[in-house]
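Audit log entry. Action: structure prediction of a protein-small molecule complex. Ligand: pyridoxal-5'-phosphate. The ligand was supplied as SMILES and no pocket hint was given, so placement is left entirely to the predictor. Protonation state taken as written. Sequence taken verbatim from the request; no trimming, no tag removal. Recorded inputs:
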Amino acid sequence: MSSTALWHPFADMFEVKSSSFCVTRAEGIWIYDDSGRRYLDGTASLWYANAGHGRTEIVEAAAAQMRELESYFVFNDYTNPPAEALAARLAELAPMPNAKIFLTTGGGEAIDSAAKLARQYWSQRGQPQRTHILSRGNAYHGTNGMGTSIGGIEANQAGFGQLVPETGRVAHDDAESLREAIERIGAENVAAFFAEPVMGAGGLYPPEPGYLEAVAKICSEHGILFVADSVICGFGRVGSWFGVERWGLQPDMITFAKGVTSGYLPLGGVVVAEHVAEPFWNEPGRVFRHGATYSGHPTVAAAALANLDILEREKLLSRADELERPLHEALLQVADHPAVAEVRGGVGLLGAVELTAEQLQAGALGTLQKTIRELGVIVRPLGKALAVSPPLIITEEEIGLIGKAFAEGLDTLA
Ligand SMILES: Cc1ncc(COP(=O)(O)O)c(C=O)c1O
């Protein structure tokens, strides 16, 4: 018998309809279930609670803005002060000079915006045949139309009929595979290449040394737009604002979401390099006919600004830098466990423990996730691994609790 009307994303509702895990409140790095029991939020919810939970400063900024102007659209010539202030601030923080900011309500919408803008850019530049969009095997770019089509996790594409044509995948860790695809399709037909700096939902894969620099170079050699999908990697997760700075990258576009508000309200967007914006901004009549109702929502923008204040004031970007090694070391303690195939991490406050093929076949990933939750720590099954990405305010001692829960949980596996 069904006990809920809520259809959970990515869930087997046959199981979940009668056994869900209800989170009722949160504070700092801790979340509480409906029986009042607390858990360490080892995943910062879905990779986004960078500043941690219960920040009244963000709540008050949003409430104050709601009293003044809760919402108004920014289509055509309409604007509002928080949307303007947020765009100016993000443009200032971005690694590309004089960038423009297109605001959305989440990461998937940011991906659709960037992919459509890439195609439209080439059309405006007199090369309308440049429509192919390349991305990496195992990539995750959300579940909107474009994001589904350019994603590299095959299960997320099955059974949806024909997806957006002229998209293709290359090997996730081999820059030469991108070069070969470009040569096969013809650079003159390729609009853009999308890549997550650290691959997240595909199983948490930091880039191979030199990989990101190499693909950025290949794109620039072929005049192809390089789009960094920093939806996870931005706002401190890998120690910088847009998740690309540590590799010295200056992408043509950067998609962002999640940590921009630490999740207090839904927001995403695209940082657009000056030369990509140029045909639309410097010539009359060239309209990007795209945008969602809540783009530039003033209350959401006010929450984002308050969140950026916290990230800056508490130096949470360098905190992620300081903590990436302790987190990696905490996970490496289980590297020799017989159920563990690999431990990944060391790039930002992100890590994963991959199980052996034998354990995966026996269904251990789901079981272990639940066992670790029973031990008081939230972790997430992704690909062949359990991933962690705690709030940036976590301490080294609390990171130790994540390592301990992994060790104890693994020992319960047969
Ligand atoms: C790299 C990446 N891109 C895009 C998205 C989609 O974002 P959203 O779920 O806000 O649509 C996600 C979501 O996890 C993501 O990890």
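Audit: result stored. The chain has a mean pLDDT of 97. The radius of gyration is 21 Å.
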